[in-house]
Amino acid sequence: MLNPTTARSQMIGGMIMATGAALLEAGVVDARLGRLANPNLAEYMLPVNADIPDIDVLFVNEPDPYSNPLGSRGIGEMSMTGTIAAIANAVHHATGERVRDLPILIRVQRTDLIGRTAMAPSAAMAATAR
To answer: Matching PANTHER family, A to Z (predicted)?
Structure first.
């Protein structure tokens, strides 16, 4: 590892990006017009500091003689794969349903106070996207 401080920051950034990809980020397409319904950052949901708990990064500090002559490699994106899988597995363990689409949305129906059946907001967003 060439720079442990930078490597730690890269791993944390990748985990935050993965949390956004797994739970928030969705390009919603208007089926009538064929255009994005959330074309700018005002409507596109991204994780902010309040969404992310404290993250700790630990490394197994062993050299890799096979990577390249310097022994270096990029690590920021590597943390995304495990994080998205961990979030999907947590949803599976909590609900019993295996989720295979991102972002992970709540797909339930609820009855509002008037007695009509209405979709939960995240399910309505998913229905619009498809």
So the answer is: ALDEHYDE DEHYDROGENASE (PTHR47495), BLL3820 PROTEIN (PTHR47495:SF1)
- Do residues 34 and 115 lie in contact, with contact meaning Cβ atoms separated by under 8 Å? no
What CATH number does the domain containing 124 carry? Answer: 3.30.365.10
pLDDT of residue 117: 45
Q: What pTM, to 2 d.p., does this model score? A: 0.70
Catalytic annotation present for 97: no
How do beta strands 35-36 and 29-30 pair?
antiparallel
Q: Which of 25, 43, 62, 77 is catalytic?
A: 77
34-49 pLDDT tens trace: 898 888 888 788 898 8
Q: What range defines the domain where residue 29 resides?
A: 4-129
> Number of folded domains in the chain?
1
Q: What is the pLDDT of residues 18-31, one digit of tens each?
A: 999 999 888 888 88
